[in-house]
Design a protein that fits this description.
heterodimer; A: alpha/beta; Rossmann fold; 2 domains; six-stranded mixed β-sheet; 17 helices; globular; B: mainly alpha; ABC transporter involved in vitamin B12 uptake, BtuC; two-stranded antiparallel ribbon; 1% strand
Chain lengths: 496, 323
């Protein structure tokens, strides 16, 4: 490890209702691979977005190559030599490899693009990295692994001094990961500073020199990787003071009937042979890391995305679900993790959103019975304690927690018995959070059955009666709440 | 100003619509001043004639734009319906009422065609309506062997269809349009159809994930649009009597411009039937007024183009400021 190239100190950043970064520190040296770890939502990505100028920090300093800097956009950071290799590749599949690498700064000859020179330059880059890719190949024809190499080559062609890898291995095969590590070691040998974001504990031990752990937007500590064990890191990641008591035992009545049975569900790459049962009055937690396939499972079950195979029984009866319409008819309601895109129509009123799934019950002849609609809406505003001046308020004007309540109201108006809550408290402040928790417990006590997908460990432990853990599209564990611990879940979630 | 905007009566009528009516009145005086005489009943009748058929087209396309789509076929479809109806009446000797019904059916068929293409087969509405625009022109020309379709002139037998536009000097066309506009406004604001059409335009995926058959409701918007283009054909032939094949494009532009000026958002989700009607008046008065001021009719395109761009720009500005 060489001298310090980048120091972030006391970085603080708030969004409305969320303290996303609370005085976080990070130090990167030349010639080191520095792991940045933390649960989903710990603030890793936010920190990197602050570094590269996508977000503006509220306070704190960034020192780069001995000077205090502030980048206003990713381009400025890039020009200074700080580059991110994203988890989702930003590549244009119809262009060639070389065209992708030099996008925005094409070599020109007499007013025309000089593809020959771009190919030559790309070839030089690849030989530097010791990888074998034809620069004239169309990007779309490469494997994900090769595409990632191109992304790295692109980063290096910017004369990067600090490269940030955001979960680079998520989509790679074992062999590709080996190749990636070889490149990373080469870059380290060339005295670049490397930030490596990953959830995979084993990789951290293999490739990184130091590790900084974040939790709930705060800085926990920095360790020398060689001196610590996998368990040390897990403890730092999850070992927060739990401010809400975990459930100690299942609240489901013994012998409660199975309301939903899913068998051998397969859908795309993200859902592989998933089977589970949901009982009446149960809250079934789905835990796992980002990209574990939990949302995809829920969407396939709900008919929002096509599925390849799998059988679904509801109250003992086999059902065919090919579209959300079918699912809703079966009494399933889905509350998406991305409320604004999939949950509500923000430009419409609370009343219009509340009756969206059951409008046919609010017709008087040809017309919508506005009075009945308003009454039903008001009933759920009162019941869910939605804060709004009127039923005609546009949903866009509500806070995240209240928007979530409108989505809940939509399914309650429809009288759904099975509710899938996908990240029910994402982007919701602490006060509204406990209201949502309270509500979910109430619904379960009334006999509604709930599937709760959550990336927050405390949420899983506080709410679930039983926990399904997924990793890379497969169910890796099913744990009763009485036996569940953070360590057990984290272990199953990182099982490869 | 803010206080004024918040008065209950202003809120009820819609601030933008009041501004539009103001613009309309202002235009009347500007044109009167520019042409050196007050625009008289002749000019107004000219404008109203245009309002009659343009109005139905614009009402129809408001439904499609509300879903976030577009329909460029309405003008040619209207002309096609007029051609087919006329030939059935004159050459094939169909009774007048049946020929008129056929006009509406032709429009509806094109609407169904567009609806299936867009909602069920997933074609971009831009492309599907381009296809049906060409189909409409082609079908109209083929059916009439590229001849004009001459509907009976006033006073001839079988000319009672003219009463849809004008009855002894009384502008029945305007009344007809306003009644249909009210029906459209009710459909848009008070029924399940309108509710879902607007919600689809606002956030299709959220509506689909609520278990709503979005394809059905989206297709229905195109069917309404096509049917109204068919109804427009009745007033169109009522005004011009002699239908030429191969026309219709400029009506699209005028109808869509009317919608947009009236406050319907091209992105979908927001639609104003009242605004559309006022927009139609503005576009029609523009045409008549520019002629009255002594400009050649071709200048009308330039001026309309500029006004539409300005109207939409100011709309985007004000809505982005709200965010």
């Amino acid at each position: 490890m060489g001298e310090v190239i980048l120091t972030m100190k006391g970085i603080d950043k708030s969004f409305p209702g969320v303290h996303a970064l609370d005085h976080v520190d990070l130090e990167v040296r030349k010639g080191e691979v520095h792991a940045l770890m933390g649960e989903n939502g710990a603030g890793k990505s936010t920190l990197m977005k602050v570094l590269t100028g996508i977000y503006t920090k509220d306070s704190g300093t960034i020192t780069y190559e001995g000077r205090e800097v502030e980048f206003h956009n990713p381009k400025e950071a890039q020009d200074a030599g700080i580059v991110i290799v994203h988890q989702e590749l930003n590549m244009m599949n119809h262009l060639t490899v070389a065209q992708n690498i030099f996008i925005g700064r094409e070599f020109m000859k007499g007013g025309l693009i000089d593809d020959g020179k771009m190919n030559d330059e790309a070839r030089k880059l690849f030989s530097q990295l010791g990888i074998d890719i034809n620069p004239a190949e169309k990007m779309g024809n490469l494997t994900v692994g090769k595409q990632q190499m191109c992304e790295i080559a692109k980063a290096i062609s910017h004369e990067a001094k600090v490269i940030i890898f955001d979960e680079p291995s998520a989509a790679l095969t074992e062999a590709e990961i080996e190749e990636l590590f070889k490149i990373i070691r080469d870059l380290r040998a060339k005295q670049l500073g490397i930030v490596y974001i990953s959830h995979r504990m084993d990789e951290i031990k293999v490739i990184t020199d130091r590790v900084t752990v974040m939790r709930d937007g705060g800085y926990v500590g920095t360790l020398i990787t060689a001196d610590c064990t996998k368990n040390d890191i897990i403890n730092m990641m999850v070992g927060r003071v739990i401010y809400e008591d975990p459930k100690t035992h299942s609240m489901v009545k013994p012998g409660a009937p199975v309301v939903l049975k899913v068998e051998h569900l397969n859908a795309g790459k993200m859902v592989k042979d998933v089977s589970f049962e949901l009982h009446k009055g149960e809250i079934l937690g789905f835990s796992g890391l980002m990209g574990a396939g939990r949302t995809e499972t829920a969407r396939a079950l709900f008919g929002a995305d096509p599925k390849e195979s799998g059988d679904i029984w509801i109250n003992g009866q086999k059902v065919e679900i090919h579209s959300p319409q079918d699912a809703v008819k079966c009494g399933i309601g889905y509350l998406s993790e991305d409320r604004k895109r999939y949950g509500i129509v923000v430009g419409k009123t609370i009343a219009e959103n509340s009756t969206m799934a059951s409008l046919k019950d609010f017709l008087k002849g040809l017309f919508i019975d506005k009075k009945k609609e308003n009454e039903a809406t008001q009933k759920y505003i009162d019941r869910l304690k939605t804060k709004t001046p009127s039923v005609d308020q546009l949903v866009v004007n509500l806070s995240g927690g209240n928007q979530q309540k409108v989505v809940v109201a939509k399914w309650l108006v429809r009288n759904c018995d099975i509710l899938i809550f996908d990240e029910p408290t994402r982007g919701i402040d602490v006060g509204a959070k406990s209201e949502i928790y309270h509500l979910m417990n109430e619904l379960a006590a009334e006999g509604k059955s709930i599937i709760m997908i959550s990336s927050e460990m405390t949420e899983i432990l506080r709410m679930s009666d039983r926990i399904v853990v997924m990793c890379e599209g497969r169910k890796t564990a099913e744990i009763d709440i009485a036996e569940a611990t953070q360590e057990k879940i984290m272990h199953a979630a990182t099982l490869r | 100003m803010e206080n004024f905007k918040n008065l209950p009566i202003i809120k009820k009528l819609g601030f933008n619509r009041i501004v539009l009516v103001g613009v309309l009145i202002l235009m009347y005086f500007v044109f009167s001043l520019g042409s050196g005489r007050m625009l008289g009943s002749g000019d107004i009748n000219n404008a109203l004639n245009m309002v009659d058929y343009l109005g139905f087209l614009a009402l129809g396309v408001t439904f499609v734009i509300a879903t976030g789509g577009i329909d460029f076929s309405i003008g040619p479809v209207m002309v096609c319906a007029g051609l087919i109806g006329g030939r059935l009446l004159v050459t094939f000797g169909w009774p007048l009422w049946l020929a008129l019904v056929m006009c509406v059916i032709v429009g509806m068929v094109f609407g169904v065609f567009n609806g299936i293409l867009v909602a069920y087969m997933g074609l971009p509405s831009f492309i599907s309506s381009m296809a049906s625009m060409m189909l409409a022109k082609g079908v109209g020309s083929v059916f009439t062997h590229v001849q004009n379709s001459n509907w009976p002139a006033s006073g001839e037998p079988n000319s009672w269809y003219k009463y849809f536009v004008n009855y002894n000097g009384f502008p029945t066309g305007l009344l007809f349009l306003l009644v249909v506009a009210i029906v459209c406004a009710i459909i848009m604001n008070k029924t399940k159809i309108g509710r879902y059409i607007l919600c689809i335009g606002s956030n299709r995926e959220a509506v689909r994930l609520s278990g709503v058959d979005t394809r059905k409701w989206e297709a229905l918007a195109y069917v309404i649009c096509g049917t109204l283009a068919g109804i427009a054909a009745i007033t169109y032939v009522g005004v011009i009597t002699q239908v030429q094949p191969g026309l219709g494009d400029e009506f699209n532009n005028n109808a869509i411009a009317s919608c947009v000026m009236g406050g319907t958002s091209m992105a979908g989700g927001i639609a104003s039937i009242g605004g559309t009607v006022i927009g139609v008046f503005i576009i029609s008065l523009l045409r008549v007024g520019i002629q009255a001021m002594g400009f050649r009719p071709d200048y009308q395109y330039i001026i309309t183009g500029i006004i539409v761009a300005l109207a939409v720009f100011s709309d985007i500005r004000s809505s982005s400021r709200k965010k």
